[in-house]
């Protein structure tokens, strides 16, 4: 069972705003962009994504972030910049928040995702098509939270990442089998989930 010791802390020292990037050019084109070689410099926010972020900032209803930390992919960096600019913060890069790597499916149509998710439901350790295992994603995502819990207190930290990694993280924090990550309601582009203190 791939739950490891990934449940939520018994006492949170910080609050976290788990944010999925806004609608991206990859979403618009219906392609999988999961490798740093393609995603760090290309496939940023779409025009719709820019509008989503402007609206999100204008209608802000969450605690005010004190830090903004993001994946180094262009779509998450641009999303983080919107949030950081709105609150006078300087965003910082955290590569462990990167997109889940989809291996041989890189550059293919996003209609390939459900096949991988079906395999995830059978085994959170699988590497079919050289896809990053759900368990590995959970471990690196949870390590980000653990590090902040050890080094900071009383912060509200926006963690800007990607759909699959955030769903996997939320499944881990709920103490549920990682194979069930797609049983959660899908996180929409520019969505924010508040967890912690």
UniProtKB/TrEMBL annotation:
Protein name (database record): Probable phosphoglycerate mutase
Domain of life: Bacteria
Lineage summary: Bacteria, Pseudomonadati, Pseudomonadota, Gammaproteobacteria, Oceanospirillales
InterPro entries: His_Pase_superF_clade-1 (IPR013078), His_PPase_superfam (IPR029033)
């Amino acid at each position: 069972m791939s739950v490891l010791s990934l449940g939520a802390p018994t006492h949170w020292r910080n609050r976290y705003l788990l944010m999925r990037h806004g609608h991206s050019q990859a979403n618009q084109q219906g392609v999988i962009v999961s490798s740093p070689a393609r995603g760090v410099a290309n496939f940023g926010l779409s025009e719709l994504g820019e509008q989503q972020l402007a609206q999100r900032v204008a209608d802000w209803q969450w605690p005010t972030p004190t830090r903004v930390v993001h994946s180094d992919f262009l779509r998450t960096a641009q999303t983080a910049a919107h949030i950081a600019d709105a609150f006078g913060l300087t965003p910082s890069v955290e590569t462990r928040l990167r997109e889940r790597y989809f291996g041989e499916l890189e550059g293919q149509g996003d209609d390939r995702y459900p096949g991988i998710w079906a395999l995830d439901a059978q085994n959170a350790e699988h590497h079919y098509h050289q896809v990053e295992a759900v368990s590995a994603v959970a471990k690196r995502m949870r390590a980000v939270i653990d590090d902040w819990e050890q080094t900071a207190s009383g912060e509200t930290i926006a963690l800007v990442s990607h759909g699959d990694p955030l769903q996997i993280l939320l499944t881990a924090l709920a103490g549920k089998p990682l194979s069930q990550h797609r049983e959660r309601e899908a996180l929409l582009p520019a969505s924010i989930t508040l967890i912690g203190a």
